[in-house]
Specification:
- The protein has a domain at 294-491.
- 75% of the residues lie in helices and 3% in strands.
- It is built from 21 helices and two strands.
- A hairpin with a 4-residue loop joins strand 1 and strand 2.
- The protein is globular and about 75 Å long.
- The relative contact order is 0.10.
């Protein structure tokens, strides 16, 4: 397969195609809505859904080739395309992937068509606008994962913000305006500081050329920065990424956004958007400023915030009466585990962090789908309105149990492999932090098993639930790929781990080597201009 893909030059066009296809599709869906005015709304809406679903399925099919076309032993950028863009600003359209980003690309292209299926019946207003925004959002998210130019990275970072703001604000719940504005303000404030840092680094990298240079390689080669500049630059990137993760105490926008977003919006937030923050740490904050990231004070602070997030998110989830808000706070805990793995900085912890990112996308995405499905039937997410419904909706209850156990980390599921790797790797460098974080695993079992009991295993005492219909074939079909991924990664994760191993190893070595060179100047306060 890899020889065939190489023979047709697959790596030479695939990444631009993955960015252009949903953007062109968004234009097509929007035009279809304009041209269909005056016709039946049902026909126009069905056409928009089918067009969007077909485009995103094609996107996924095209992206699958990356699994075979990339050399898994190569630690550098692959499938690179470098084209002129805004020459006067020193910005180029440069894209590429490695063993880290390719897994995020595949996770995105897999979840997006499922998200369209998940909103097939629940999105009934302004259907064309909704699906247009979903396609634009796809371009923005993929652009962040493949950008090799920091100016392009920032543009894509902002592109994805706008569609999600409207998706929450127009198609969300009763408090959607509050949630969408809060989401926008938090993300925008962090992003503006990152923009300042990117401009500064681009100017430093382009001093010899007389114009900015935002190339990732050129910015990696920037030297002579003063300790103060490095701390401030790292702080700017840290704030932008910490808000997006979100790390404690920057997490307060997330529960509101999750609860008020439509089902597909919650799935995309949990499955993909939160990973953009952790990806930013892996791709930019850690490699560009390893001396600051590994500075004892900075590292201890970040690790402490990560562990607090694990415990705090779990404890708050434990007392939630709303199932969707419980899952939202569980995301704070899971992403805290990712940050622990990243800043522990061992090969196993980095691989584990990446596995948690993938596993969280599958398991938490499935949980939000399941919540949305039962909400469509009952119009309630409160535990008090359910109880014992396993007898009425056995398929829904069975899948919910499997997914919840995977989120807990049951052996044989994706959650166990990912959390085990994070703890194995992190214990080597930060044993005390890892021990405290392990409490979060126990708490996750507490809040999810208790949730299952209240939802499906208590006594059946509400006759109004007797008429709840079980899952239909569309819903079973969209959940099946997620269940396959949950079990596959739990039983045989080797193929995924192999594809990220070389890049994870290179990242650890890079941080250690560059950090060792930067740390003396940072700790002494000298060096640089």
């Amino acid at each position: 397969m890899s020889d065939f893909l190489a023979s047709i030059g697959y790596n030479g066009w695939i990444l631009p195609a993955l960015l252009i296809l949903p953007a062109v599709g968004a234009l097509a869906v929007w035009l279809q809505g304009v041209l269909s005015r005056g016709t039946s709304n049902d026909v126009a809406d069905t056409t928009a859904r089918r067009m969007t679903f077909a485009i995103l399925v094609l996107e996924f099919v095209l992206s699958i080739g990356l699994w075979w076309s990339l050399d898994q032993k190569d630690t550098g950028w692959q499938a690179v395309v470098d084209l002129p863009w805004i020459d006067v600003w020193g910005a180029r359209f440069t894209v590429g992937v490695d063993g880290i980003s390719v897994m995020m690309v595949l996770l995105t292209t897999m979840l997006m068509p499922l998200a369209i299926l998940g909103g097939w019946t629940s999105i009934r207003r302004k259907v064309n606008g909704y699906h247009t925004l979903m396609l634009v959002l796809t371009t923005g998210m993929l652009g962040v994962f493949v950008a090799k130019d920091l100016f392009l990275f920032y543009v894509m970072w902002e592109v994805m913000l706008v569609p999600m703001y409207f998706i929450i604000g127009i198609w969300g719940g009763d408090r959607r305006i509050y949630a969408s504005i809060k989401f926008f303000i938090y993300t925008m404030l962090g992003s503006l500081l990152m923009l300042v840092a990117i401009i500064y680094l681009g100017l430093q990298a382009g001093i010899m050329e007389g114009k900015p240079n935002f190339s990732y390689d050129a910015i990696m080669a920037v030297s002579g920065l003063s300790p103060t500049a490095m701390f401030l630059l790292f702080g700017a990137f840290f704030l932008a990424f910490a808000v997006k993760v979100p790390m404690f105490p920057f997490h307060t926008w997330l529960p509101d956004a999750h609860v008020e977003a439509p089902t597909a919006g919650s799935v995309i937030l949990a499955g993909i958007l939160l990973k953009l923050g952790t990806y930013g740490f892996l791709r930019f904050a850690m490699p560009l400023f390893p001396g600051v990231a590994m500075h004892p004070t900075v590292r201890t602070t970040v690790l402490a915030l990560a562990v607090i997030g694990v415990i705090y998110g779990s404890l708050v989830a434990l007392v939630q009466p709303d199932f969707k808000k419980l899952v939202a706070y569980s995301s704070v805990a899971h992403l805290g585990m990712v940050m622990l793995g990243i800043f522990a900085n061992t090969r196993e912890s980095i691989q584990g962090a990446l596995m948690v990112m993938i596993s969280h996308g599958l398991s938490t995405g499935a949980l939000f789908f399941l919540i949305g499905m039962i909400y469509e039937r009952k119009h309630s997410r409160m535990f008090a309105d359910y109880g014992g419904i396993a007898k009425v909706v056995p398929i829904w209850s069975t899948i919910l149990t499997i997914v919840a156990l995977s989120s807990i980390g049951l052996p044989g599921t994706n959650g166990f492999v990912s959390e085990f790797l994070v703890m194995l790797g992190s214990f080597k460098t930060v044993p005390y932090m890892t021990t405290v974080a392990a409490i979060g695993v126990i708490l996750s079992a507490a809040y999810l098993l208790w949730a299952l009991q209240r939802l499906i295993y208590n006594a059946f005492d509400k006759p109004s639930n007797r008429s709840l219909p079980d899952l239909n074939w569309r819903e079973i079909g969209l959940l099946t790929p997620l269940l396959i991924g949950i079990l596959w990664l739990g039983v045989y994760p080797k193929p995924v781990l192999q594809r990220m191993e070389a890049s994870a190893t290179k990242l650890v070595q890079l941080v250690e080597q560059r950090g060792a060179n930067q740390l003396p100047a940072l700790t002494s306060g000298g060096g640089g201009n």
